[in-house]
C-alpha cells in the first residue's frame, strides 16, 4: 500500500482522477444526461436592441406538426418572480425577469420559447414564429447617443475609488510622465459546451440538469423565481464543459425551461445555439481607460491616476473596477482612481476569467512600459524600484509577494538580456522581432465551504462537497487533499461533487476553490484523525499522545515509528464508518459567510479586501512577437510565464491552468473582440468562426515556470492560479509589438489594421 | 434570432431563415410532416437500426437517439470540431453530416476506441498522460481528430500537427499538451 500512495497527496502530480471518463466519452455533461421522453425547447430571441414586441403571430409556427406550446410575454402567468441581481444580494446575472412584458431591453433577449416533440420541429417552428417590433433607437454604449454615465461610487454598492495624496498635483510637478488612453473590447467566454438546461418535475420537485459554477446558487435562485422551497429544487452538474465565469450566475433561461416542463408535465430539454449564447448569458464589458503615470528620473513612481469607464446594461450596474488592483500594484505616494458605469441598451455584462484584471492591468502594464521607455529604463528595473511589501492604498502588508523573483527567473529563462532596448532594433529577415514583458497578479479570494468526509471500515474515503469541475481539476485536487489528510492512496478516495444535494461549496469563481475546498476537506480529515487517535489507547500505540499520531501510508503512526493499520485503528473508534461534516470560514470573512453560502450567495472575501492584510499570487510574463515588415501579420513566436502562487496542490493541473491562461492572453491581445453594429446595438460576429479564439496553430513555444513559495497566512498556503495566467499577457504582447515596430497600440485586439 | 447561415439548414425548409427577420412576410411553403425513415447505422462495429426524421444530423442521431453522447455539440455549424467522428476512418463533423447520409458507412465514435477489456487506445492514453484536456468537453472530438490526423500522415512534425488540428477548438487551451500527446501516441499507433 505505501507504494501505491507515493506522490498522491498535496503537491503530487497524479493523472486526473476523472481523466479516464473524459477520454472515453463517459463524462456526462448536462445535456448528455438522459431524461425520459423529453420535449424540446428552442429559443426565439429579439431582433432589436430596444423597443417593444407589438405582436407575436403564432399561426405559422403552430401549423408545424409536433409543436406543443409557445411561451411568450402574452401568455406567461406571473410564473417567474425576480431573482435579483447578484451584486445587489440576489442570484441572477441580470435583474430582468424573463418574458415579463413586451419591452425589449437588449439584442438577443429571449422573447419566446417554442416547445415541440423534437429538436428539429422546435427549431422549424421557432423560425416560423412571426415577431413584430416597434423599434426605438438603442444606445450601444461608447460613441452612441443615449447612454447614461454614473459614478460607480454612486451606482455600485460598496464601490470605493482610491484617493491617496494629491495625484494630479504630483503628476503636474513630476519630471517624467506619460498620459495615455486604452481601450478593451467586449469579449465572450464561448465555452465549447453550449448553454443547455433540462428540467423535469416529479411530485412537485424540480430537477435541473445544467452546467453550473454554483449549484447552490442556481438552486436557491430558481427556487426564489418559482416560489418554491429550495429543498424542492435539485441541480445536477457533474461535469461542466468550460465556464470562465459564464455559468456563475443564474440566467433567464433556467426558470423558463422549468415553467415549460411544468406546463407540459414532461421533461423539457434546451440546447441553445451558439449565437444565442452571445446574448442569453453574460460577457466581458468593454472599457475605456485613461492612465497618468509619473516618476522621478530614477524610476520611483510619484503619481498614478487610473480612470475607467465600463459599459453595462440599463438596469444593472455591473462593475469591472480593476482599479482596485492597479492602485495596489506598485509603491506610489499619490494615487487617484475613478470608475464610471455607462448604462446602455445592452445585456448585463458579468464575470469573465480575471474580470477586473484583464482590462485594467492592460492599461497599467502598458503604461509602465511607456514610462520605462520615457525614462530610458529597462521595464523590469522600473518594476523593481517600485516593488513593495505593502499595498499603496491602505498600507496593508502583502502576505507574500513573489513578483520580482518571477521577473528574475523568467528573464533568465526567456533570455531577456538578448533584447536590444531600442524599438525596431531586432529583425529576422522580413520579420520585425520584439520582446515584451508585463506583471501579472491575481487576488487570493477565499470562501466559506463545507464538506462531508466518510471513512468506511474497508479503509476507503468518500468526500462530498458541492464544488464543480470546470476543467480546473477539482475532482483531483479534492481527492489529493483527502488522500493527504487520511494517509490513503488516491484510488481509495471517491469524490462526489456538482450536485445541490451535497454540502455547499462556494461559487467556482475568483480562483478560490482549490484553497477554500481543500481547507475544509483537510479540516474534516483532521477530525477523523483525531477520533481515531483518541481511541488508540488499547492497541499497539498504547501510551502515545494522541495529538502526535498521524494518518499516513494506510496506517495510524506514532513519531517513534510504531504503527497500526488504518482499518484496525479505526475499528477501535467506530463499529462502522466515521463520518465528519466540516465547515470552514477563512480568515477575514464574516461569521455570516456560512449562512450566505447555504443561501447560495456568491460571498467571497480575502484577496485585496482584507482588513489587516492583502493576499495575491504574482507572476511575470515574457513574449517574443514577430511582425511582418510588409504585411503587418503579427505572431507570438514564444511566450513564457513565471509564477509564484503559494503551495501548488497539483503541479500538473496547475501548469495546465497557467498554460491555458497564457493562451487566453494571446487571444485577448491579438484575436478576441465581439464586434457591434453600433447603430443597432447588435452583435455581428456571434459565432466561433468569426469571434476569433486561439487555435492550435496560434500557439507557439510556451513555457510555464512555477516558483516555490511558502505563504504562512493561511493554514495550507494555497493561492488560486486559474485566473493568474491571463492577466497582463495582453500588455506584454502590446509591449512586444511596440518593441518590434515602434508603434504603441492602445486598443485591443491588435490586428493587422492596427499596425498599417 | 440571427438567421442561420446558408448551407445545411437550407435543406430543412426553404425560406425558413426569412421568418426570423422582423416584418419578413416571406412566402413560406406550408409546414409538412417529416415521417421518420428507418436507417441502419453501423457504429463502432455494431448495426443500429433507427427511425429518424430525415432532418436529423448524425450528431443528434448519436446523442439523442442512440445514447452515444461522447460526440459533443459545441456550435452545430462546423466551426468547433467537438462533434468529430470517423466515417470509414476519415474524420468528419457529425453536426454537418445528415444521419441518413451516414448509412452504409462505418462510423467510429469515442465510445468505440477502448478495447472490450477497457484497454485505452494509445491516443486516449496519451491524452491522459499529457494532461491534454481540461474541462474535457472538446476532448472526444480532439481525440477522434488526432487519430485521423495521424492516419492521414499529417502528424509528421509539431508544426504539422498544430496546423491539422486547428479545426478542433479547445477553449481551455490545452493545445501544447494536445500536440505532445499526438507526438507520443503516433509511434504507439503505428506499432499497434
TrEMBL record, chain A:
Residues 24-137 form the Aldehyde oxidase/xanthine dehydrogenase a/b hammerhead domain. Keywords: Molybdenum, Oxidoreductase. It comes from the Bacteria. The keyword Oxidoreductase applies. SMART domains: Ald_Xan_dh_C. Pfam families: Ald_Xan_dh_C, MoCoBD_1, MoCoBD_2. This is Xanthine dehydrogenase.
Automatic annotation (TrEMBL), chain B:
It holds the Pfam family Fer2_2. The keyword Iron applies. PROSITE patterns: 2FE2S_FER_1, 2FE2S_FER_2. Keywords: Iron, Metal-binding, Oxidoreductase. Signal peptide: none annotated. It comes from the Bacteria. Residues 37-113 form the 2Fe-2S ferredoxin-type domain. The keyword Glycosyltransferase does not apply. PANTHER family: OXIDOREDUCTASE WITH IRON-SULFUR SUBUNIT, OXIDOREDUCTASE, IRON-SULPHUR BINDING SUBUNIT-RELATED-RELATED. This is Oxidoreductase.
